[in-house]
């Protein structure tokens, strides 16, 4: 299945040609989804599909099928509509109760999430009211879904140079966070984490060893860049919390597609795989701050979790070969969806079945990084 996902992702990359945060610039493109289990790519397009794309889809590898479906809106139109809803929520307009919004992968409109009123019992009516108000502001059809607001998930206890992703960080304000991928900014070695963990000061390991000072950050991407003493290892901690010696290699950076299966690695809850990407190009309010271009992934196995508070800043990755080499896909920002029972953790926390993460593409572009 993972080998099929690699083939599907390469085909999707060839179709779109640009990183995911730039797909809205493709004329006519509405969205796409991959299905690694069935070996299928479904492409949604508004208007005439370019000959280049049609030619690619007629020359698919063995075992891979493709379908093209017409969509009423382009991704560019839906992102603009999404941004109108975000602006309305930030301004506090009447009825703008949503805490997340983004395009449906099939190009039919937007999906918004809102916190249901525990007092009201008319759930269907409430969904309709939210959807109608959102559609008035967005100018496109909207599906409203009750959903808990995303919560920031701001240990591997004592890492050292060469630094790895998925290790425990102590933020400048003593917050409990996780290290993201190591990278290079020119000739400067850096380590990523979540901006809500801290945007100034010095980061340390869980045992108090100095990692390095903050170099820069971006609140919208929810990413902080730490200058490190030493070098990045190009690896990340893998497996359960008590398996601190287990690690895998990071093999470059990749783009995310709806339907992709990804993994996470957090210092609070450990590693989790078979997480299915359900949304891209999403905007959401995390602890009162709106973030754009988030991706969401949900668990496909009820026996696991996706993320816990304490995993913030940790890596999201996917198989690049169907084997052990893993590709950087993003940095964990928040947990949402439903609260679930946690497994082994080093301390009290809350676990979720959904993870929101910043895709790696815009992070690389913003900070001019080369992933280690």
Number-wise, the strands total 25
**Gross morphology:** globular
CATH class of the largest domain: Mainly Beta
Determine the N-to-C terminus distance: 27 Å
Rg over C-alpha atoms, rounded to the nearest angstrom? 20 Å
Helix content: 10-25%
Characterize the largest beta sheet: strand count, sense, and whether it forms a barrel.
Answer: 8 strands, antiparallel
Strand order across the largest sheet: 10-9-13-14-15-12-11-25
Mean pLDDT: 92
From the 3D structure, determine the CATH topology of the largest domain. Thrombin, subunit H
Count of helical regions:
5
Q: Report the sheet-strand fraction.
A: 35-45%
SSE series: HEEHEHEEHEEEEEEEEEEEEEEEEEEEHE
- Total domains, how many? 3
Question: Considering the protein shown, what is the CATH homologous superfamily of the largest domain?
Answer: Trypsin-like serine proteases
Structural class: alpha+beta
Under the CATH scheme, which architecture of the largest domain would be assigned? Beta Barrel
Structure description:
This protein is of the alpha+beta class and 372 residues long. It folds into three domains: 2-70; 75-146; 150-372, Thrombin, subunit H (Beta Barrel), CATH 2.40.10.10. It contains five helices and 25 strands. The protein is globular, with a radius of gyration of 20 Å.
What are the defining features of this structure?
372 residues; alpha+beta; Thrombin, subunit H; 3 domains; 25 strands
């Amino acid at each position: 299945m993972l080998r099929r996902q690699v083939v599907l992702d390469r085909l999707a990359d060839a179709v779109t040609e640009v990183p995911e945060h730039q797909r809205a610039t493709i004329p006519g493109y509405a969205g796409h989804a991959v299905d690694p289990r069935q070996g299928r790519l479904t492409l949604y397009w508004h208007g005439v599909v370019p000959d280049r794309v049609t030619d690619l889809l007629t020359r698919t590898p063995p075992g891979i099928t493709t379908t093209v479906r017409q969509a009423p809106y382009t991704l560019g139109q839906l992102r603009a509509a999404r941004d109108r809803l975000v602006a309305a929520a930030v301004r506090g307009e009447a009825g703008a109760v949503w805490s997340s919004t983004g395009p449906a992968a099939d190009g039919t409109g937007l999906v918004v999430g809102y916190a249901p009123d525990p007092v009201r019992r008319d759930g269907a009516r409430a969904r309709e009211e939210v959807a109608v108000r959102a559609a008035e502001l967005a100018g496109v059809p909207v599906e409203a879904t009750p959903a808990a607001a995303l919560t920031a998930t701001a240990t591997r206890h004592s890492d050292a140079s060469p630094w790895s992703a998925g290790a425990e960080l102590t933020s400048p304000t003593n917050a409990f966070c996780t290290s993201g991928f190591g990278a290079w900014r020119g000739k400067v070695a850096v380590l990523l984490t979540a901006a809500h963990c801290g945007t100034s000061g010095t980061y340390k390991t869980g045992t108090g060893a100095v990692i390095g000072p903050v170099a820069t950050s971006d609140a919208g991407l929810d990413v902080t860049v730490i200058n490190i003493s030493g070098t990045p290892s190009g690896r990340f901690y893998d497996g359960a919390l008590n398996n601190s010696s287990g690690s895998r290699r990071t093999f470059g950076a990749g783009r995310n597609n709806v339907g992709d299966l990804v993994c996470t690695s957090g210092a609070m809850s450990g590693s989790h795989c078979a997480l299915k990407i359900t949304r891209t190009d999403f905007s959401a309010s995390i602890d009162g701050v709106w973030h754009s271009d988030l991706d969401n992934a949900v668990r496909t196995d009820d026996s696991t979790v996706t993320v816990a508070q304490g995993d913030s800043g940790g890596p999201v990755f996917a198989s690049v070969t169907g084997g052990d080499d893993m590709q950087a896909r993003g940095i964990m920002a928040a947990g949402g969806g439903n609260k679930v029972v946690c497994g082994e953790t080093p301390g009290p926390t809350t676990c979720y079945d959904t993870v929101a993460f910043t895709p790696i593409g815009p992070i690389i572009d913003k900070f001019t990084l080369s992933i280690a």
